[in-house]
Design goal:
The complex is a heterodimer of chains A (about 110) and B (about 120). By secondary structure, chain A is mainly β. Helices cover about 0% and strands about 60% of the residues of chain A. In chain A, strands 2, 4, 5, 9, 10 and 11 form a 6-stranded mixed β-sheet that branches. Chain A is globular and about 40 Å long. Chain A starts with a strand and ends with a strand. Chain B has about 120 residues and is mostly beta strands. The chains are: A mainly beta (about 110), B mainly beta (about 120). The interface between A and B is medium-sized, with 22 and 22 residues.
């Protein structure tokens, strides 16, 4: 069964600290993996996208990694800011068929 | 560009009522999607369209209908509202090229919060 699981479910960190969010998937055959940021009351916004051959992708303070062998991805946030408080969603798409699976997200709270 | 716009932002329906959620994009994207997001759950695909005149069911299509008469518009119709359809609805669009490898990024609207009582 195609699934995307994210951990932790929620996370509280202090402003300025780093954090890492995890994503495990069983979607097959794999096409690409994306991380989205969703602010409260808003639609998701794309942060990074990685295909099978890519194992790291950065977007400012956000760095995503992908291990296609173990089917794991992580999103590392450096020097967190209050504006990083949001849900972070891992999304995996398969090839061939039109199948995109969304994880339930990690809710990040950054406190001053 | 306004991107993806959705109306209304909020709506309360009574059981059995009907309504249409509007979605418009001005990026000339060929793919459009409708999702629902329930609390603590991942987005679920309701319907999608790969171009004007072409629509197909997603993961949770029951109770909904769509049409795609133009590239820009992709309305979602609820015919007989039920409490189980209480959710936040997101419309999204993307451009899918013909290179064979999909790296399309979906652009989302702000969402419509629907409550069925």
């Amino acid at each position: 069964k195609n699934q995307v699981e994210q951990s932790p479910q929620s996370l509280i960190i202090l402003e300025g600290k780093n954090c890492t969010l995890q994503c495990n998937y069983t979607v097959s055959p794999f096409s690409n993996l994306r991380w989205y940021k969703q602010d409260t009351g808003r639609g998701p916004v794309s942060l990074t996208i990685m295909t099978f051959s890519e194992n790291t992708k950065s977007n400012g303070r956000y760095t995503a990694t992908l291990d296609a062998d173990t089917k794991q991805s992580s999103l590392h946030i450096t020097a967190s800011q209050l504006s990083d408080s949001a849900s972070y969603i891992c999304v995996v798409t398969n090839t061939g068929g039109f199948k995109t699976i969304f994880g339930a997200g990690t809710r990040l709270f950054v406190k001053a | 560009n306004a991107g993806v716009t959705q109306t209304p932002k909020f709506r309360i329906l009574k059981i059995g009522q009907s309504m249409t959620l509007q979605c418009t994009q001005d990026m000339n994207h060929n793919y459009m999607y409708w999702y629902r997001q329930d609390p603590g759950m991942g987005l679920k695909l309701i319907y999608y369209s790969v171009g004007a005149g072409i629509t197909d069911k997603g993961e949770v299509p029951n109770g909904y209908n769509v049409s795609r008469s133009t590239t820009e518009d992709f309305p979602l119709r609820l015919e007989l509202a039920a409490p189980s359809q209480t959710s936040v609805y997101f419309c999204a669009s993307s451009y899918y090229g013909t290179s064979g490898t999909s790296t399309d990024t979906q652009y989302f609207g702000p969402g419509t919060r629907l409550t069925v009582l």
